[in-house]
Design goal:
mainly alpha, Growth Hormone, Chain: A, 71% helix
């Protein structure tokens, strides 16, 4: 794509009001070249091309990475139907060993998220993310060689450790390039690849299951097919993924200036990658971060259940494991479509909380339908659609909501990691609420998912109201934010005058 051109005053036919120079907005600027930010109207004219350039450089690759992560994270559920418990878990009649394997991923993932996000903040994000992807690919592929319960457990542990340097980092990484109103739909495309992975993972598992007389067990082939490509893509990521805009080779100096001006309308563009420890403390002590974590818990109880146990749940509706794998595809596809539509609406309205509340209600009603007698195929299968649509769609909106509301890069990094980590504690819980002894009704799992979905909906509505009222109070105290003024969020985070929360 040709570089976006920013016209000179002579080309514009007028003398645009001078604003901050390129060197004042973007680090490592060449001030002698005299680049100046043109007026806002002209920036809006050129920024669409710049946005497309950014999207092409970032979105396909990061969506592919999350697609691979979701395959590597969720294929344990498919492997369960392909003989893994019988081969290395001693049959696992109660399902307890499988639950431990599933949950250990989340334990290491949760514990490593805050330090991993601070590393992404401090160092080149493309390098940190690429190395993380490569190493979790190695751990995922290694599951094919597991000979006993301990071997599988170690592999799952390290998948969690290395994915912690990727999952929470991407919403933070997007905030280096996109405004808050552009964040939701892109996070939805990113997370949407997980729903697509669920559908595609079911197709892969169905294909592997159909192999007759393979040289090794079906589940070992599955781990290799889905793990080895991750290693290759991880190495390519180090080279292909742009670093921060100011250090990226894909932008001209003029384009870097435009990115700095656009982001500067909402937050201060930070030139120092150092961690601000006062903001780390501020995020840890901010009750709203923890409430967001509780909302995210309600999503993750359902998400953890769906990603690991949807094939098992659907297998109660049909006697054929292969058909059960195939029937997982439509609910994931529906979730992907709902996710994109909801994200576009949310970005257009610049609203997050009310939509999150609505989606959690949809998820809760889906689990309510699954409580019906398991002989009612249509009703219960329809419930899997609502559960997937509400759960998967709510996740990217929560990530974008959190990324929008904490001002500085450091507080944003810690808040995202805390919300995601605290929320995913319930992904661990999800591993233990579907024991095989509850088959075929699984009432415990469905009741807990339904209850927490409704609870999360209530919290989202209340927190959204709080942010809205806080904005109104600041308007009364400070007046409406001055157009074009940059809140000093680098120093004051979300406490900066002129900063307003997205509700």
């Amino acid at each position: 794509m040709a570089d976006a051109h920013i016209s000179t005053p002579e080309e514009l036919g007028s003398d645009p009001k001078p604003t901050a120079s390129y060197s004042e907005n973007v680090p490592n600027a060449d001030a002698e070249k005299g680049y100046r930010i043109p007026d806002t109207a002209h920036i809006e004219h050129v920024h669409r091309r710049l946005l497309l350039k950014t999207d092409l450089a970032i979105m396909p690759l990061t969506a592919l990475l999350y697609w691979l992560a979701s395959l590597d994270r969720g294929n344990l559920g498919n492997a369960r139907l392909q003989g893994l418990p019988q081969d290395i878990l001693g049959g696992d009649p109660g399902g307890g060993l499988f639950a431990l394997c599933s949950s250990l991923f989340y334990i290491s993932y949760i514990l490593c998220q805050v330090p991993a996000n601070l590393i992404v903040k401090r160092f080149d994000p493309a390098v940190v993310i690429g190395i993380s992807v490569f190493l979790w690919g190695v751990a995922s592929s290694s599951q094919a060689g597991a000979r006993n319960f301990g071997g599988e457990l170690v592999c799952r542990l390290f998948i969690g450790v290395f994915e912690a340097g990727f999952g929470p980092a991407i919403p933070l990484y997007y905030s280096y390039f996109y405004t808050r109103a552009e964040h939701g739909k892109r996070t939805a495309l990113f997370i949407g690849s997980a729903a697509f992975a669920g559908a595609f993972g079911g197709l892969i598992a169905y294909g592997v299951q159909s192999l007759s007389s393979p040289p090794i067990a079906h589940w070992r082939i599955l781990f290799l097919i889905e793990g080895l490509p991750t290693c290759i893509v991880g190495l390519l990521t180090i080279w292909l993924l742009p670093n921060r805009p100011a250090q990226s080779r894909i932008y001209t100096a003029e384009e870097k200036a435009v990115i700095g001006e656009r982001l500067g309308r909402e937050v201060q563009v930070e030139t120092d990658p150092a961690v601000r420890w006062a903001h780390v403390k501020g995020a840890l002590g901010d009750w709203r971060v923890w409430v967001m974590g509780m909302i995210y818990q309600s999503l993750n109880l359902a998400l953890g259940s769906i990603s690991s146990f949807l094939p098992t749940i659907i297998n109660t509706l049909t006697p054929s494991p292969a058909r059960a794998q195939l029937l997982t595809v439509p609910p994931y596809a529906a979730a992907f479509g709902t996710m994109l539509v909801s994200a576009f609406i949310s970005d257009h309205l610049a609203v997050r909380g009310p939509l999150v509340a609505l989606l959690l209600l949809v998820s809760g009603f889906g689990f309510m339908m699954l409580l019906i007698d398991h002989t009612h195929f249509s009703v219960r299968y329809g419930g899997t659609f609502l559960a997937c649509m509400g759960t998967y769609t709510g996740v990217p909106l929560m990530m974008s909501w959190c990324a929008a509301n904490y001002g500085s890069e450091t507080k944003r990094a810690v808040a995202l990691a805390l919300m995601i980590g605290f929320g995913q504690c319930f992904s661990v819980v999800a591993s233990f609420i579907w024991p095989t002894t509850d088959s075929p009704f699984y009432r415990k799992g469905f009741i807990l998912c339904m209850t927490w979905s409704f609870f999360g909906a209530a919290l989202a509505a209340l927190l959204s109201t709080h942010f809205r009222l806080t904005n109104l109070a600041r308007d009364r105290r400070e007046g409406r934010p001055e157009k074009g003024a940059t809140p000093q969020t680098g120093t004051l985070a979300d406490k900066a005058p002129g900063f307003r929360y997205m509700w």
